Structures are given as C-alpha cells and as structure tokens.
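User: My instructor asked us to take a sequence, write out its structure as tokens, and then describe one feature of it. I'm not sure where to start. Here is the sequence I was given:
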Amino acid sequence: MTTHVIAVDVGGTEMKAALVAVEPGTATPLREIRQPTPRGDGPILDAVRGLVESLRGGVELAAAGVVVPGVVDERTGVGIYSANLGWRDLPIRDRLAEQLDVPVILGHDVRAGGLAEARLGAARGLRDVAVLPIGTGIAAALILGGALHTGGGRAGELGHVDVGHGERCGCGRTGCLEAVASSAAIARRYRARSGEPAAGGAEVVAALRDGDPHAAAVWQDAVDGLARGLIVLAGVVAPECVVLGGGLARAGGLLVEPLTARIDELLAPHHRKPRLELAELGDTAGCLGAALLATEGLTTA
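Assistant: Let's start with the prediction itself. The structure tokens for your sequence are:
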C-alpha cells in the first residue's frame, strides 16, 4: 500500500520539502520545492504551512513530517533550542497541527537523515547503526534495534566527546571531537598552520591530494580524533555500521582508509568493529527521513 505524506526539512539557510509516496522499503519524492529559510519562528512556521499547502495538490495525505535542527524532543513535539533559527521551547508540532488538517510528526534533522540512511541508504537492512554527518559540527543519529534512539532529544552528541587534545571548542571546553574533526575545524587549523586560505574542509582535502604537508598533519589529527570518538561509540552502543556523511565524506577513501586503520589500532579486541560506509542519499536524506518519520509515527502512535 502506498502512503502519501509531505516531508519538510528546515535547514539553517534552506528549506526542502517534498510530496513523498512511501511504500515498504521505498520512499519516492513526487514533487519538490526548495526555498530560503526565513528568520524567526513565526515566519518559519508560516513557511512550512505554505509548503505543505503548495505540495498537497488534492492528494489525500496521511501526515506531514517536519524535521528541524537544534535540540528537539520528538516525543512532545517541541523544538527545545536552536541557535541558528532562534527559538527556545517552541511547540512546533502543536502550532502546525492547529493550522493543518493532517497529523504532524516533528523530528530532528540529523536523526531523520540517519533513519533514511538506515532504511533506504548505505545501512539498509541493518539494525544497529550510527550515521555521522561531518560538517560545521558533528552529531550522530543512532538507530538501535531498528529504532531511533533520541535520549529526550539529546542523544548522539559525539562532537562534544573529549578525544584528548588541547584545542578549545566553541562550547568553551577543550578536547571536543568537533574542535579537530569538523569541516570548519579542519579548515581553521589548516589556515593557522599553513597561512593559506581555506573556507572549508574541501579545500584542505584538495591540498591533501596535492601532497601539502600541512594538510596531511591537520588531516591526521582529524582522523585520530574521529577514530577515538568512534571507539567510544563502539564500546557503548556497538553499532554494526557507521555511515559517514556530510561534506567531509566526499573525501572517500582518503577518509575511510586511514580511519579504518586507526580504529584497528585503538579498538579493544572484545569490542564490535563497526563497518564504515559512505552516505548514499546526500542532501535528500532529511526529507526522506521526515517522510519515514511521518509514516512510522502513524504506525506507532
């Protein structure tokens, strides 16, 4: 049976929305819209409502799935905090449900993207999975026993695990994984070390391919930090697979091969070694995950 839902992925700069046909094992976007994200919670919620109305087009909808960044409590439907979008304790699900005549399911953007990779992408068929987008920050989506683990909206903050270095993080602490291995940190550390410009991790990867020793040193620190973060994850939740996503995953083998080797060096022999895969769904993962949350939310409600 095909279920039609509307999925909305609210990003810090762009909103992606789609009418999605969901069947067991598949989710197919039928119509899509992208537009800039407005500022302020009122305009954002108005924009979500407008996207839903624009996409429904006479189709009988089962639900709308909306995913947002920040700290999100999926159970209560509240956006607890978003630094980029500027809200605190915003009852997003209830506010939207007042305006739309379909059930609304609220989710977190990283966890929704992780769910999509686990169901439809690089980790399909597996039950214990961590999906790790590496971009401006680092957070993990945890799928344990086939279900999303949310921890009241706070699970998966791997970026702020102390991996034993002296760099200061934006959170004010030192040692955070995010401070050496995020795309932003890699670019910042390369600029400081080499004096060369680098807006993001992609430029450092290009320099690494060209044999730049400064890029190699910064990359080695990032790989070591990621390996140390992942062995913590392996010891605590023992995922079968870790899916690497975000802009940094475009480095492909330059990331996976040394990271696998470093995990081999550090991992305790009695811990499950996770298989490393590269994400398959790109920037469509959030929307597809929102569609899955909409249908799975209906199933489990």
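For the description part of your assignment, you could build on this observation: The two ends are 19 Å apart (CA to CA). Try explaining in your own words what that tells you about the chain.
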